[in-house]
Amino acid sequence: MSILAPIENLLAELLNNLYLLTKNLGFPSYGLAIILFTTIVKVAFYPLNHKQMKAMKLIQELQPKIKEIQQKEKDPQKANQKIMELYREYKVNPAMGCLPLLLQLPILWALFSTLRNFKFIDVAHAKFLWIGKVAPLKIPLLYNMLGKYKDLPAAAFSLSTPDPIYILPLLAGLSSYLSSKISTPQGEAANNPMTSSMMIFMPVFIAYIALSMPSGLVLYWVVFNLLTGLQQFIINRQFEREAEGKEVWQDEPAGDRKKRKNR
Questions:
Q1: pTM greater than 0.70
Q2: Based on the structure, what is the number of domains in the chain?
Q3: Within a domain: residue 234?
Q4: Cystine design at 55: which of 18, 96, 219, 243 (Cβ 3.0–4.6 Å)?
């Protein structure tokens, strides 16, 4: 028995219940069930993701001070010590960046394992948009990524099989790129070749592995990325408004500032 078997059983039951909900609403679809499931996961992780995104945004804003420390301190150990003191001063935990992803990994793996051999209540509703309606496109290299599914007819495809026309893998790559683009500070990619390379490499790699993944899992990834990008955009806007407020406060004449304080 797999170590993730309890999570897989829970996911299967939850997906079936969400499917039944869509059926009761008059729109029976496992695709909609997966979108609902993704939204539930995103809401559950929202407080943690919010803290992580704010921490990463603060670290980005602290970069000038970090660079100043690194330039002044030639000893890397002392520089790291002062950087950690800076983090403590601003109450920033750099480890927060990895935590949400680490917590996501068991869900991703369990969902992958669940969807591969999922017993749908109604297979007809395991089709989604073009999946189950269109035969595989015989594009060189991409076609071979479908593996044992490449010679199957259109009706044999479902959310348990790869996307026969590769649209979801493409969206997985694009959504990953947009998500990283929104979370990366302006100018960072241009000034840091490593960051720039990773922003291109990772989405391409994700799109590549998504070619052979169950399309239900790729759908989950796309929706999760879009929700994450939206959340990051909102946080960025909040930081911009706060920064504008600070600039207005600093530019205000001291006399006016004192009057406003005494009101």
A1: yes
A2: 1
A3: yes
A4: 96
